[in-house]
Amino acid sequence: MVADYLVVARVEYLKGELPAVLIPALLACVTLGALLAVEVLLSIVVFALLYVTGFLVNAVTDREVDLRYGSFKRGIGEAASRLGDRRILAIVGLQTAVGLALTVELARRLENFWLVPLAGVGLFLGIAYSAPPFSLKTRGVAAHALSLALSAFTVPFLFLYLAARGALDLPGLLVVGAFTVVGYALEYANQAYDFTEDLEAGLATPVVRLGLVRSLRLAVAAFVVALPVLAFSLAYLALTRPAVAYGLGEGARPLIVAGAVGAVLAGYAIPLRGLSRILRAAREEAADSQALVERVRRECNYSLWQTSGVSGLFAFALAVFLVSASAASDLREASVGAYGFEGAATATPEGQRALRVEGALRAQGEEAPAGGPGTIVVEWRGPGGAQRLAAVPVELPEPGGSVPFQVGGVRLPAGGGTLHVALLVDTDFDGAPDLQVASAPVEGADFP
To answer: What is the secondary structure of 262-330 as a DSSP string?
Structure first.
């Protein structure tokens, strides 16, 4: 039963999908703690459960057709027959229920309930791709592209990216879009593999509708156009990451661009070579032919093509993460003890139980990180514990230098206590200060 399930769930795709699920997290996370966060792990489990659901439904709806094929799809039909439709659909129901329940929990943890409809759209399109009455894979070229590209590439990548980063940004959106086009273009060659059987079975797939030669040319054109866009989007994402800039320096821009281009070319070299051979064969044919189908079958190894391409992207994403994690660690180590307040801060009353706090920061010696953003926090420390009253951004001083700061409109709570200022630094480059590196009392008045 397990062996048949793995066949129906298309286990051969796991070689490419396992590293693929980590790419969004590697591009979004800066620290190892963030990468191993419960939210990221939950998103991977949700992906695994919902992604294979489309394959299971496809095995049920296409079982009779798959059994007539002479290709590897016959094995899928045989495995589906041994499992039985009722058992497969029960598994689909269980996986769907668990996946959606985990999605709700993930959305609650992240306070981002857009994840729920996003997962729902991906699940619906993955099922509607094959299942009647929708059967989107035979409803036309646009319906096929919408259902397969979104469910197999766009939605999973977006879901994982949002879970890891918490929000979508332009660089991430560009990477998702380019990756979707590249992945879907390769799918056309995979569909051409079954052109003869699909034609005889009356399945109006895009390759059958457009014709074998025309669809192959379209796939190669989309693939070749999308590859440079994918390389550009990867480089753009890395160049906009503050952690990468801090870790490598501004002078590393050409290295980052070369790395992105090299990762894309190296990863997609195998499918690019195979597609070019198929295209040459298509140019030699005046019309669709069985000889061209056989050439496609010799050249096209879809799971290998996807695995190869994903491996290149994974290598680049891993490099981005390692540079970012190293930069965060270096910044944290360098920031501790690197800054201090020039004596105590002073408070000047601005009204009833309100005041203005002023002081100056100094970088201690030449080992302090070279500038960057920090946050000055004003705290009231009383019998009930510390209470943050105000926070303002401040530019950190250059090594050996100092910068003044001022926090106005600080309103004091009732009751006794003391006032303090603290400097916090954003060492994980997420825009939120996470490390306190200096603290000082506020003098100038005896507050009741």
So the answer is: HHHHHHTHHHHHHHHHHHHHHHH-SS--HHHHHHHHHH--HHHHHHHHHHHHHHHHHHHHHHHHHHHHH
